[in-house]
């Protein structure tokens, strides 16, 4: 069956609401987030993005890039109110709505032509209604599946409407690979090393070759490079968890390598949590061994977390309850669930300091290992000084599952 999907995404949502409510902020660089030294940018206006500012950046850094920026605190109730009004507009056209966050959703408008016109006309009507009734701009992408629709809404942002042609090649082939769903910095780097930069480049690789390189993710890359995505619009399901996982080029057994991987995962998960203003109270670690057997370990934490350091510490503890290190590991994953809106009090500056200290330590250990061999040097404790003051109090230890 041919489906018609619209992806809708409000432009710089929180910042736009602030500019809507305070007329004098229009046209100015506006940052939404905590002002204190440890605050993080939750959202920024397009005027602020020109200075290289993006969400999840430490506020102090953003203000160094643009000292004239106006900072406003997060007003979640106000944003929720706008979100409700925008989703009510969506619901006039279809009840097949999959919310992704307060400001973003997929709509399945297959079969709505007779009532409301083509998918492109429906998207245009929604954009007009949102502008007239809320004063906000929303970008829309129209396509035959979710993957392409989401790429399309970003294509003409802000205040854009893009309809993916059928067949989609003229749109899809020139896109850089980092735009593909599931292609993070690590995968991107590996693809670049193979000389691949665009979707057109990726198309040159066979499905077998991609599977050799990226396992099951390779199959997905093969399909995405062809614009294929069969996921249906799932009504009313907001994200229940946020996570990342990495399959390694070679199986890991070295504690330092395992630690580095967890560090990287924790940072990516934390960045996504903060960019959505979410905290998670259940941390889950996933470990897949070289024989593909997989275990998960999880823990409930109180208070809930969104900083990389805190997530890393729980993940490290959970890792000790697996055979990682004794058995080679082919995949690690960290996810947070039981999500709620908010920000961790502990700030990112603290984390940035820890991070540079860790990197320095990593460098020193590397030097020693070069001199004495990998087994000769192992860190007694990966984070010797930070444990006591900042380990979150852990509540009921969740059950293990395999
Ligand atoms: Mg948005």
Structural key phrases:
DNA polymerase, domain 1, 5-stranded mixed sheet, Dna Ligase, domain 1, binds magnesium ion, alpha+beta, 4-stranded antiparallel sheet, globular, 402 residues, Alpha-Beta Plaits
Structure description:
The protein is an alpha+beta fold. It has three domains: 165 residues, Reverse transcriptase/Diguanylate cyclase domain (Alpha-Beta Plaits, 2-Layer Sandwich); 54 residues, DNA polymerase, domain 1, CATH 1.10.150.20; 150 residues, DNA polymerase, Y-family, little finger domain (Dna Ligase, domain 1). The protein is built from 16 helices and twelve strands. A five-stranded mixed β-sheet has the order 5-6-1-7-8. Strands 9-12-10-11 form a four-stranded antiparallel β-sheet, covered by helices on one side. A three-stranded mixed β-sheet has the order 3-2-4. A hairpin with a 4-residue loop joins strand 10 and strand 11. Helix 4 runs antiparallel to helix 6, helix 11 packs across helix 12 and helix 13 crosses helix 14. Bound molecules: magnesium ion. Magnesium ion binds next to strand 1.
Topology:
Layout lengths: L4 E6 L2 H9 L8 E4 L7 E4 L1 H4 L9 H7 L4 E3 L3 H15 L6 E5 L2 E5 L4 H4 L2 H16 L3 E6 L2 H10 L5 E3 L5 H4 L12 H9 L5 H4 L4 H8 L1 H9 L16 E12 L2 H21 L2 E12 L4 E12 L2 H13 L8 E13 L6 H25 L14 H4 L12
Parallel strand pairs: 2-4, 7-8
Antiparallel strand pairs: 1-6, 1-7, 2-3, 5-6, 9-12, 10-11, 10-12
Magnesium ion binds next to strand 1.
Given as residue ranges, the uncertain stretches (5+ residues, pLDDT < 50) are: 346-352, 374-402
Looking at this structure, what is the CATH superfamily of the largest domain? Reverse transcriptase/Diguanylate cyclase domain
**What is the number of domains?**
3
How many E-type strands? 12
**What is the name of the CATH topology of the largest domain?**
Alpha-Beta Plaits
Strand order of the largest sheet: 5-6-1-7-8
| N-to-C SSE string, H for helix and E for strand | EHEEHHEHEEHHEHEHHHHHEHEEHEHH
Proportion of β residues?
Answer: 15-25%
Query: How much helix, percentage-wise, in residues?
Result: 40-55%
Based on Cα principal axes, name the global outline: globular
Largest sheet: 5 strands, mixed
CATH architecture of the largest domain: 2-Layer Sandwich
What is the alpha-carbon Rg in Å?
23 Å
What do the pLDDT scores average to? Answer: 84
Hetero groups bound? Answer: magnesium ion
Tally of separate helices? 16
Report the top-level CATH class of the largest domain.
Alpha Beta
Termini separation (Å)?
A: 37 Å
Task: Indicate the structural class.
Answer: alpha+beta
């Amino acid at each position: 069956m041919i489906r018609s999907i619209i992806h809708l995404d409000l432009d710089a949502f929180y910042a736009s609401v602030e500019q809507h409510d305070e007329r004098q902020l229009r046209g100015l660089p506006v940052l939404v987030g905590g002002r204190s030294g440890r605050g993080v940018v939750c959202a920024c206006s397009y005027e602020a993005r020109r200075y290289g500012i993006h969400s999840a950046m430490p506020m102090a850094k953003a203000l160094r890039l643009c000292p004239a920026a106006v900072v406003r605190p997060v007003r979640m109730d106000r944003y929720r109110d706008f979100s409700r009004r925008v989703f009510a507009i969506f619901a006039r056209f279809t009840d097949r709505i999959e919310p992704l966050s307060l400001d973003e959703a997929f709509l399945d408008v297959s079969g709505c032509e007779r009532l409301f016109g083509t998918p492109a006309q429906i998207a245009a009507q929604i954009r007009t209604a949102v502008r007239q009734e809320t004063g906000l701009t929303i970008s829309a992408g129209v396509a035959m599946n979710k993957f392409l629709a989401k790429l399309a809404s970003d294509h003409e942002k802000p205040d854009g409407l893009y309809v993916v042609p059928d067949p989609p090649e003229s749109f899809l082939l020139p896109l850089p690979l980092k735009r593909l769903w599931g292609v993070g910095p690590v995968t991107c780097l590996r693809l670049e090393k193979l000389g691949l930069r665009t979707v057109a480049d990726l198309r040159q690789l066979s499905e077998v070759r991609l599977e050799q390189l990226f396992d099951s993710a390779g199959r997905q890359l093969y399909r995405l490079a062809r614009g294929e995505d069969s996921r249906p619009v799932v009504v009313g399901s907001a994200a229940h968890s946020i996570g990342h996982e990495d399959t390694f080029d070679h199986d890991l057994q070295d504690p330092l390598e395992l630690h580095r991987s967890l560090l990287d995962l924790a940072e990516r998960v934390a960045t996504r949590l903060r960019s959505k203003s979410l905290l998670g109270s259940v941390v889950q670690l996933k470990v897949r061994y070289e024989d593909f057997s997989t275990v998960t370990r999880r823990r409930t934490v109180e208070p809930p977390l969104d900083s990389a350091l805190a997530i890393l510490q729980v993940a490290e503890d959970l890792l000790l309850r697996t055979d990682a290190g004794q058995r080679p590991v082919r995949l690690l994953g960290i996810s947070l669930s039981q999500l709620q809106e908010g920000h961790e009090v502990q700030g990112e500056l603290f984390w940035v300091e820890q991070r540079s200290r860790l990197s320095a330590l990593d460098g020193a250990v590397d030097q020693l290992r070069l001199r004495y061999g990998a087994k000769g040097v192992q860190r007694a404790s990966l984070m010797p000084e930070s444990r006591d003051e900042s380990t979150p109090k852990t509540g009921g230890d969740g059950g293990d599952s395999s």
